[in-house]
Amino acid sequence: MTASAVQVADTARYPLSEPGSPAWCEIVSRTRAELRETGCSVLADFIRPELRDVLRHEGAEIAPEAYAKVERVNAYNIAIDTPLPEGHPGRTIMERGNAFVARDRIPATAVIQQLYSSPEFQRFVADCFELPELHELADPLAGLVLNVIEPGRSHPWHFDTNEYTVSMLTQEAADGGVFEYCPNIRSETAENFDDVRAVLAGEGDHLIRRLTLRPGDLQLFRGRFALHRVSSVQGAVARHSAIFAYSERPGVIGSPERTRQLFGRVLPEHVASAAVRGDQLLD
User: Fold this and answer.
1) Cα 78 from Cα 93, distance rounded (Å)
2) Phi and psi for 166 in degrees, rounded to 5?
3) What is the pLDDT of residues 32-45, one digit of tens each?
4) Please, what's the b/e burial string for 132-158 (b: 16 or more CB within 10 A of its CB; e: otherwise)?
5) Quick check: 277 pLDDT over 80?
6) What average pLDDT does the segment 52-80 reach?
7) How confident is the model at residue 114 (pLDDT cuts 50, 70, 90)?
8) Given CB 3.0 to 4.6 Å as the disulfide criterion, which of 173, 181, 196, 277 pairs with 239?
9) Euclidean distance between the first and final Cα of the chain, in Å?
10) Does the global pTM surpass 0.85?
11) Three-state DSSP class for 246?
């Protein structure tokens, strides 16, 4: 385990360097149970308390690099003029006001960059997700990003491209900015458009769960199958969160359309490579 990863994690609570130990097994077992039930688990105070100011400072330093164009999107992040049948939830158009700092704008020395690439951290996350291994995304822009939501903006309802997402709040909003999600609203074989449509129409509150997250908490999430959003941020402080995206398969690269939406640019890798998927779900 690299020295930086040891310094980042509260290893007294989360023994990343001791796979198979009783403490490791207890944490992994609890996390697996929560992921099976709701597709989401929060590991409180994963980061050492004394490093939370470092996380906030590093996020503030790179936040101006975020691509911040307000976009009209749908929950599937496919082109909004995609031909879809009447009543399809993909025809519900929302305004996305959050911004992303791409991975190639995050310094290699940043805490979140080093944690994302740590083999020990990846092994721990894979074990929690009941997988033999996980892979960093091959996408040169996605994989690791800083999500920036300025006051008055939100990240509307959407599904993730990748199956396994790990995130960490690095700066909480003064008000608002609540993470909301619908556990297992779709599966690998069923889109369940009726429930998705109900949530988008404001009629599915019974399907929604809400999380109170604190800086330094680690959130494990199966975002490909759970519709989710961050509600509007209020007050004078932006919401920052690091998103560590992994895939069960190597070589995953985002589609050109989604890449353009998120980062305002498309690289040759996105054009040349069809996104690797293990299912036939909309993006």
Assistant:
1) 11
2) -125, 130
3) 999 999 999 999 99
4) eebbbbbbebbbbbbbbbbbebbbbbb
5) no
6) 93
7) confident
8) 173
9) 35
10) yes
11) strand
Question: Residue 221 in contact with residue 167, Cβ under 8 Å?
Answer: yes
Three-state secondary structure string covering 21-76: CHHHHHHHHHHHHHHHHHCEEEECCCECHHHHHHHHHHHHHHHHHCECCCEEECCC
Sign of CA dihedral 70, 71, 75, 78: negative
Using only C-alpha atoms, the chain has a radius of gyration, in whole angstroms, of 18
Query: What number is the average pLDDT over the span 195-224?
Result: 96
3: confidence class by pLDDT, cuts 50, 70, 90 = very low
User: Which DSSP category does 9 fall into?
Assistant: B
> Measured between alpha carbons, how far is 5 from 182 in angstroms, rounded to an integer?
32
179 DSSP β-pair partners? 211, 230
Name the amino acid, one letter, at 125.
V
Q: How many residues would you count in the chain?
A: 283
Helix (H) / strand (E) element for 104: namely none
- Say which range, 6-20, 70-84, 93-107, 264-278, has the weakest mean pLDDT: 264-278
Q: How far apart are CA 221 and CA 215, in angstroms?
A: 17
pLDDT, position 255: 85
Give yes or no for a contact between 134 and 125, defined as CB atoms under 8 angstroms apart.
Answer: yes
Q: In the prediction, which pLDDT does 91 show? A: 97
Handedness of CA 117, 38, 158, 235 (dihedral sign): negative
Q: How far apart are the C-alpha atoms of 101 and 144, rounded to whole Å? A: 9
Banded pLDDT at 273 (limits 50, 70, 90): confident
Q: Which residue's structure tokens are 């300025």? A: 150
Contact 229, 182 (CB under 8 A): no
Cα 206 from Cα 235, distance rounded (Å): 28
